[in-house]
Design brief:
single chain, M14 family metallocarboxypeptidase, Peptidase_M14, alpha/beta, 307 residues, Aminopeptidase, 8 helices
């Protein structure tokens, strides 16, 4: 068996220092526009929703305003649903699925639940189609007090006044072929470890919370999404991305201890969606539709089972 080629930055077995991080940053290229793809859509949505700036990122020479969207007619007697997208900027349908949900389906829940949507948590990474921020830090391992990623800290500040009121949180993600070809090797190189090859599942799956499992909630989402796109099967070890499958299309992570976005609210119902955009059986439209279907199914199940 041929050993994989070493990652082109750094020395195998040695964690990156400042020079390696600077070299990595110099190689990042802007491929798309946060302003064109996200901010302009938010400007149009502002006629129907309250759009607020909740933070700013300063990655000189680039600066980014972070936006969240609330429904009009916010009521203190209603629970809150949080929807987040683009925690990993390269996971495109998370961003566009959140925006599509706002445009097409959010009005269905008026007077039933308060909606708070942060459609693009990591705009620098969105533009560069990357997993990390400009400091080579993964925001989705940084959702903890005094965490190293400002993307994560800004979102935590936004939701802090609402803790105790969240009924659910849906965090929209993707698993892509580049996880295996680029991002896992880069992570191993950055940390001075050896990259271990893995398998990318073909299909949609969910990540439940080990510390607060909600199997019926996850099943309701899987049922809804299966009408839009296919669900990822377990591999021959009964796993998806090296985690045991607990029910079709569902694995579990310890959300809070891993610093994952889906662990920040303390909500009863939480999930992380994982769309597979590189499947020959899925189109970009299906990927966005799958994210919308997941959000709607999550809200509807939570409203039907509030206690």
């Amino acid at each position: 068996m041929t050993s994989p080629a070493p990652y082109p930055i750094g020395t195998p077995g040695t964690p990156w220092g400042a020079a390696e991080r600077a070299l990595w940053l110099s190689r990042q290229v802007r491929h798309r526009s946060y302003h064109e793809d996200v901010v302009k859509k938010l400007d149009r949505l502002a006629a129907r929703f309250d759009v607020e700036e909740y933070g700013r990122l300063d990655y000189a020479p680039d600066q980014y305003r972070l936006f969240a969207v609330r429904n009009r007619g916010w009521r203190d007697d209603l629970p809150v649903a949080l929807v987040t997208g683009g925690v990993h900027g390269y996971e495109t349908s998370g961003v566009h699925g959140a925006l599509q949900f706002l445009d097409q389906r959010a009005a269905d829940y008026a007077g039933k639940i308060n909606l708070l949507v942060a459609p693009c948590v990591s705009p620098w990474a969105y533009e560069r189609i990357h997993r990390w921020n400009a400091n080579a830090i993964d925001p989705n391992r940084s959702f903890r007090e005094d965490g190293p990623a400002e993307e994560s800290s800004a979102l935590m500040r936004l939701i802090r006044p609402l803790r105790g009121r969240f009924l659910l949180h849906v965090d929209l993600h993707e698993t892509t072929d580049t996880d295996e070809s680029e991002f896992r090797p880069a992570l191993a190189a950055r940390d001075g470890k050896t990259a271990e090859p893995g398998l990318i599942p073909d299909g949609f799956y969910l990540v439940d919370d080990t510390e607060n499992p909600q199997p019926a909630f996850q099943q309701a989402i899987i049922d809804a999404v299966s009408k839009v796109t296919h669900i990822a099967p377990a591999d021959d070890k009964g796993q998806i991305i090296e985690s045991d499958v607990v029910s079709p299309g569902v694995i579990r992570y310890a959300m809070r201890s891993l610093g994952l976005c889906a662990g920040i609210t303390g909500a009863r119902f939480t999930t992380t969606t994982e769309v597979y955009p590189d499947s020959p059986r899925a189109t970009p439209e299906q990927c966005n539709d799958a994210q919308v279907a997941a959000v709607c199914a999550a809200i509807e199940f939570a409203l039907a089972n509030p206690h």
